[in-house]
Design brief:
The chain is of the alpha+beta class and 121 residues long. It has one domain: PRC-barrel domain (SH3 type barrels), CATH 2.30.30. The protein is built from three helices and nine strands; from the N terminus they run αβββαββββββα. The strands form two sheets. Strands 1, 4, 5, 6, 7, 8 and 9 form a seven-stranded mixed β-sheet that branches.
């Protein structure tokens, strides 16, 4: 029973990430001085920041800072580390990330990230 509940929770988290990322028409935020809500960093500081799971597994690095309108940061495009998956870039919303010791941390697992669609800008 516990395995079923754990599996259901993992599937729900993955489907939530898909639902949050799918409908937006992302644009790159070019103004490096814009502050990122919830993370207390600027766009300049966020670009190229390393991304890890909560378990300390390296996922990749921020390739682009994105929003749905100019000057409003709401997501990042993350270039996945070579070797984890085939050349892949994913989108994570800012609400799915936190900053600790100069790193971006996501609650998603490598398995959930692998299941996410590739972002083709």
């Amino acid at each position: 029973m516990n395995k079923i509940v754990t599996l259901a929770a993992a599937l729900l988290m993955t489907s939530t990430a898909f639902a949050q990322n799918a409908p937006a028409n992302w644009i790159e935020i070019d103004d490096d001085a814009v502050q990122v809500p919830g993370l207390n960093v600027s766009v300049d500081e966020l670009e190229d920041m390393d991304v890890f799971t909560e378990r300390g597994e390296s996922i990749g690095e921020v390739d682009e800072v994105l929003g749905t309108e100019a000057g409003v940061v709401s997501a990042v495009a993350i270039e996945i580390d070579e070797g984890l998956f085939d050349d892949k870039t994913i989108i994570l919303e800012i609400s799915e990330l936190s900053v600790a010791e100069g790193r971006l941390i996501t609650q998603l697992t490598q398995e959930q990230i692998e299941a996410m669609p590739d972002y083709n800008d």
